[in-house]
Amino acid sequence: MPLHDRTARAANPVIPGFHPDPSVCRVGDDYYLACSSFEYFPGVPLFHSRDLMHWTQIGNALDRPDQLRLPAGMPSSGGIYAPNLRHHDGRFWLIVTNVSEDGGNLIVTATDPAGPWSDPVRVTGVTGIDPDLAWDEDGTCWCTFAGVAQVRIDPYTGQTYGTPHKLWSGTPGAKAPEAPHLYRIGDYWYLLIAEGGTERGHGVSIARGRTPSGPFEPCPANPVLTHRSTDHPVQNTGHADLVQAADGSWWTILLGVRPRGGTPGWHVLGRETFLAPVTWEDGWPVVGDVALEPAAPPWPLVPGPVEERRDDFDLSELRPTWISVRDRPAEHCTTKERPGWLTLRARGASLDEPDVVFTGRRQQHLSCRARTLVDPSEGRGGLAVRLDERHHYVIEASGTEVRVVARVGSLRTVVAARPVPAGTVVLGVTVGDPPLPHGACTGPDIVSLGLQEPDGTFTVLAALDGRYLSSEVAGGFTGRVIGMYAAAGIVHFDWFDYEPLDG
Ligand code: 6LW
Question: Which of 52, 61, 313, 437 could form an SS bridge with 342, CB 3.0 to 4.6 Å?
Fold first, then answer.
């Protein structure tokens, strides 16, 4: 089975796994999209699509250490929030917030979205998250940010002019007006925002005015999108961006989650990127259903290349889908020390620490299997399902023992241990449906951790309830990442397999 479903089929989420706060733009027949990345390096994953349905990661905007500084000891869900991606005047512009760095907002540019991206320009005078750039007909650039406020900006230098002025507070009584995007469409300037908070109350509202700075008149049908108080399988819908397709039709991309397993429902893949159609009535957008099996758009579907199930670590650079906690210095993570292997050198004694040496990939399927061949002869490390430093399950090898450790909130316990012969060992994780009948309060899934026996069979050492690695339990803005780590000494990994088990 291919790593991603590359059949010509329309399906939501269009980018599964922890890919929140999507921002999209079109250049000719090509679409580009950016997402948040929080405590992970490299930052701001970038995707390309020809059909809005199938997206291929082409890089990360912040992939050099001097572009992305995430301070030592920084906890999960700090770092990079909510990029805004636009194409203007022959280049791509990306403005984003690093909440863990003084100065906060920064701008990078590129002529090719696959990179290289420029060094960041620091923005002065913007005090909020979720910045957005929009250009007036005369070339004036406006930076609009959470609150919702706006200031004129020189995007080349990051300098702003004047004091930010409030544009709109959103629907009276709704909390957290944020994620603004400003567009010139027809005779109006439209101000699209998220409100209600990024959890179950999330929604999208819009206002319009005759100038980019308002005054803005709210849409009488606000919120134009929300799933609050419904049993829709996609919840928390919000943080949307609009894009006009090459044929003139309109679409929105947005974040949503897929809670499962009873009440209140637990979502484990973080906030994912969804697509929905948009029509216009009386000059206001009407958002269609955020369907898990949407109708195909009225143009040929273009599935991207199939990603290999196995990474053999034969390349000198890691694929763009690999992410590391906080940073990835070559002395701690390299494929050059032992060719064909990934070598991790520990810094921090466990995944409980925000500075752990961990390199993984987003869990993108509700059911999946990961395996890795580990050489622990010089250290201790293994395979982890990580939500954050307080919520993770690991299977690790050291010398002649393999053990499973669960960290849930302030509790940390060794769940299982088994002696093994010295040498390499294949460790594995399988995430699958809970065994109880559907509809019962089963939790979202079961995370089984184990090892491969010399005869090739697989032994599960522990099968753990997946709800403790969900955002409803852990909080925060991320989702599960499955990967390799070193907790002591040096640990080598020959290959890593990730295989979807659901459609
Ligand atoms: C982001 C805010 C939000 O900055 O969550 O869902 C915050 N929306 O707009 C972090 O992703």
Answer: 313
| Ligand 1 proximity of 272 Cβ (cutoff 6 Å) | no
Which residue in the list 39, 63, 130, 178 is annotated as catalytic? Answer: 178
Assess contact for 350 and 356: CB atoms under 8 A.
yes
Domain with CATH 2.60.120.200 in the chain: 310-500
Predicted local confidence at residue 2, as pLDDT: 43
pLDDT tier, 1 (very low <50, low <70, confident <90, very high otherwise): very low
Phi-psi region of 473 (alpha: psi -120 to 50; beta: other; left: phi over 0): alpha
- Residues 6 or more apart whose CB falls under 8 angstroms from that of 373 comprise 424, 425, 426, 493, 494, 495
CATH, domain range 310-500:
2.60.120.200
Domain 23-287 indexed as CATH 2.115.10.20: yes
Tell me the CA–centroid distance for residue 198 and ligand 1, in Å: 6
- In sequence order, the β-bridge partners of residue 388 are 391
What is the average pLDDT score of the chain?
95
Per-residue pLDDT, 263: 85
To test ligand 1's pocket by mutation, which of 37, 100, 198 has the most ligand atoms within 8 angstroms of CB?
198
Catalytic site residue 112?
no
Please report, in angstroms and rounded to a whole number, the separation of the first and last CA atoms in the chain.
9
Separation CA 131–CA 158 (nearest Å)? 12
Tell which one of 40, 200, 239 to mutate to probe ligand 1, the residue whose CB is within 8 A of the most ligand atoms. 239
d(CA 135, CA 188): 14
| ipTM surpasses cut 0.90 | yes
